[in-house]
Amino acid sequence: MVEIKAPVSRWKQVADYLREQILTGAFPSGQPLPSEQQLADEFGLSRPTIRQAINELKSEGLVEVKRPRGTFVRSPYARPSQTEERGLTHDADGRYADAGDIAWRDLGDPDFYREDATVTHTELLGIPAGEPMLVRATVQIAGDARRSHKLIMPFSVATETPWADDPRLPEPGDLYAHFEASAKGLHWTEHVRARMPMPDEAAALNLLPGTPLLQVTRITHAGKTPVVMEEIAVRGDALEVSYPLPLHKTRATK
């Protein structure tokens, strides 16, 4: 039986012990924790006390409950279960698609609405703060993974497109094809960062407390003009992204 020391709260001692076992790898990522009853017997405590300790670990993002299977370890040091290669393909028929082998699909119908540009949109799209923008928003799934996807086009760009009168933006590949036909070449840039989710994002993506988002922001440039922004957000411990790294050659200095 594990010895309990006073005066620290008993549930906190249990949480400290389990946390140490998770962080040192004694309980590997993906492994189920012993049941509440097993832990109660091991520590000589009641199940409500054990449950309070497990709830503490849940709030830290170290464990998750998968009913009816039990409580499973989520090690902060474990690599995500999926890796997505970022990039685009362009086939002979002119179709654009993401280069990775993860097949994301919309969960339900997209939402279409208007949104005013924030400072971030101003910086990345080169438009005034407050400018109206068209938005196509979806939740997408691939197996058990979920992500949110927002496709954004400023009004100043949309006025010269078929979507000036119909704000229902198509899928990204169709937008790429449209601008390719009317511009002198397309190119893309992506920005990757981690952030904490807003409450509506946590609910839509089934996020556990303490779980950050991985956000990828892709900007489509038609010639020198930014025309479309995509904001992709996925659970930070469910996916990592991979990029080919370009080599920039510099001239030798004298």
TrEMBL record:
- CDD domains hit by this protein: WHTH_GntR
User: Record's SMART domains?
Assistant: HTH_GNTR, UTRA
Q: Which biological process, per GO, is one annotated for this protein?
A: negative regulation of DNA-templated transcription
Q: Which residues form the HTH gntR-type domain?
A: 8-76
Q: Which controlled-vocabulary keywords does the entry list?
A: DNA-binding, Transcription, Transcription regulation
Task: Give the matching PROSITE patterns.
Answer: HTH_GNTR
PANTHER family per the record?
A: GNTR-FAMILY TRANSCRIPTIONAL REGULATOR, MANNOSYL-D-GLYCERATE TRANSPORT/METABOLISM SYSTEM REPRESSOR MNGR-RELATED
Record-given protein name: Phosphonate metabolism transcriptional regulator PhnF
Q: What is the lineage of its organism?
A: Bacteria, Bacillati, Actinomycetota, Actinomycetes, Streptosporangiales
